[in-house]
Automatic annotation (TrEMBL):
This is Unannotated protein. Residues 68-527 form the Alpha/beta hydrolase domain. The lineage of its organism: unclassified sequences, metagenomes, ecological metagenomes. Residues 26-37 have a biased composition (Low complexity). Residues 20-67 are annotated as: Disordered.
Length: 540
């Protein structure tokens, strides 16, 4: 399978700007198109207000309908997404692109937004929009598992990418699930963000194909995301090739995770579009609600900014799984710990030991994933040879980057969230990472590994000290964490023989499966990778 790869995917995976892409561009009309369109019907499906969260279409109360065009063709003949084409044929998947258009509303608040997330918002302006969605789905209806993941595409690097897809796509396909990436923010469509990504901005990369698109600004992004989710339910016959979703889950990572936090606090109770939410690698704050001028003028009374600490409101009736790495929990840039909140009937927080915001899997290994176990071996071997540079040296870091289990636990998190929605059985409440008092680092064991958090064999039977912190170098390196390989003497002291290592590795893997942190199907691959330890040590 040919995978999307390149610097800009990496940058989007690790983007951290909470208000990246905020702007005030607007338009009063949507350019005409000759492509066929259909009008979405409304639905009278009931609202689910208490657990268990029965997998029925939400009511989408007050959400505007969209017109859909597509599948889109023309222009240069390829979908512009990330930096290269997608081919899922080896997995029985197809990719299609659609344009959705409608009238979006921006929102404001008469009172300052509060840390508890119990926000009351009111409509401000309306604008016509036309954006795109990318759909990846099983080609055969009988292969569809019933779940659709709708990802708020990340624009930190100046173009659209899907970090949650990049880290978990192999299991999304194993589920037979649909993935829908939404160009929710203006930067991905119109440009004006990070200059490095300008060559993949839709209207610049292929003006013929995307010239009719019109994004009025990020003040409208929240309503656009609601309308996109409603379209998945209401126009599945068009955009999903007739596949009928049973569960639709919203997801957003990093910059999009900040926006997901604001979406949950202001719009999820009002619109009720999604059955559940994955908030992936957010920090302590949330994205701004409304910005007249990119929220750059501290004295502009029309701006509605968020506090520096924002929690997810506690009166939600749809489940939320908050997933964070070591990099996300501490420090000044992200510092999720400042917004920490307890688990409830509708909220779970997963903090994963030994992981970083971006890592060796998301920055290279995952690009060659084929689901045949080879990528698992590569990640295992990276404990002794994690790269210091990524993408042909375009990004150079001072130390080997993190080679931790982020991808495995994220796959398990998505499955747990889906099961929670379908059965009412909440995921396990997981231990939190044990940070120091000033939230700058972690309490560590004798080897230097962080204590607490979700445990996997990568930290409980270590071959290296995996951390989300401690990296030096320019650009985004501070988000890539570190891998400090153990010496031969350390390894021999902990694992006198290869058989001893394998036995401990397998035991820790089984424990992670039992805790819900790793899927059984991934455990088999992790164990197979661990079985190569003896040969790898012999070659060191």
């Amino acid at each position: 399978m040919r995978r999307r790869s390149g610097l800009f995917i990496a940058l989007l995976v690790v983007g951290v700007s909470a208000c990246s892409g905020d702007d005030t561009g607007s338009s009063s009309s949507v350019p005409a198109s000759d492509a066929p369109s259909t009008e979405a019907p409304t639905t009278d499906a009931p609202v689910v207000t208490e657990p268990p969260f029965a997998p029925v279409p939400p009511s989408a109360s007050g959400v505007g309908t969209t017109t859909v065009e597509g599948p889109v063709t023309g222009g240069a003949g390829q979908i512009v997404f990330g930096t290269s084409a997608f081919d899922g044929s080896a997995f029985g998947y197809i990719e299609e692109e659609y344009f959705i258009a409608g009238t979006a509303t921006s929102y404001t608040s008469a009172t300052p937004l509060s840390e508890d997330g119990l926000w009351e918002v009111e409509a401000k302006d309306t604008a016509e929009y036309k954006t795109r969605i990318v759909v990846r789905r099983p080609a055969t209806a009988t292969d569809f598992g019933g779940t659709a993941y709708v990802e708020w595409l990340n624009v930190t690097a100046g173009l659209d990418t899907g970090p949650t897809w990049s880290l978990s796509w192999i299991d999304i396909m194993r589920q037979g699930a649909v993935w829908v990436g939404v160009s929710t923010q203006r930067v991905g469509v119109e440009g004006g963000g990070n200059a490095m990504g300008e060559f993949r901005v839709l209207k610049k990369a292929d003006p013929e194909r995307y010239g009719s698109l019109n994004h009025p600004g990020d003040n409208y992004s929240y309503d656009i995301f609601s309308q996109a989710g409603a379209t998945v339910w209401q126009q599945a016959d068009v955009i999903l090739g007739g596949l009928e979703p049973e569960v639709v889950i919203a997801a957003g990572e990093s910059q999009s995770g900040f926006r997901m936090a604001s979406y949950l606090n202001a719009f999820a109770p009002m619109h009720d579009v999604y059955n559940g939410y994955l908030v992936h690698s957010r920090g302590s704050r949330a994205a701004n609600l409304y910005c007249a001028t990119n929220c750059a003028d501290p004295g502009d009374p029309s701006d509605v900014k968020t506090p520096t600490v924002v929690r997810i409101r506690e009166d939600l009736t749809r489940p939320v799984l908050n997933f964070v790495t070591e990099t996300d929990v501490v420090g000044d840039r992200l510092g999720y710990r400042r917004a920490e909140q307890p688990d409830t009937d509708v909220f779970r927080n997963w903090e994963v030991a030994g992981t970083a915001h971006g890592d060796a899997y998301s920055l290279g290994i995952g690009d060659g994933e084929k689901g045949d176990g080879q990528a698992d071996i590569e990640l295992f071997e990276a404990q002794f040879g994690a790269p210091t540079s990524v993408y042909m040296g375009i990004i150079e870091c001072a130390k080997p980057i993190n080679a931790g289990p982020h991808t495995y636990v994220l796959r398990a998190a998505l499955r747990a969230l889906d099961n929670w929605i379908r059965t009412g059985e909440a995921p396990a409440s997981m231990p939190t990472l044990r940070n120091n008092a000033d939230i700058t680092g972690y309490e560590v064991d004798a080897n230097g590994l962080a204590l607490g958090g979700i445990r996997t064999p990568y930290v409980d039977v270590p071959m290296a000290v995996l951390s989300g912190l401690g990296q030096d170098g320019g650009g985004f390196c501070g988000l890539f964490g570190t891998t400090t390989s153990m010496t031969a003497e350390q390894l021999d002291a902990m694992y006198p023989t290869a058989d001893d290592f394998v036995a401990k590795w397998n035991e820790a893997t089984d424990a992670a499966v039992a805790s819900g942190a790793i899927l059984e199907i991934d455990a088999d691959a992790i164990k197979a990778a661990g079985a190569t330890y003896g040969a790898m040590r012999a070659g060191m």
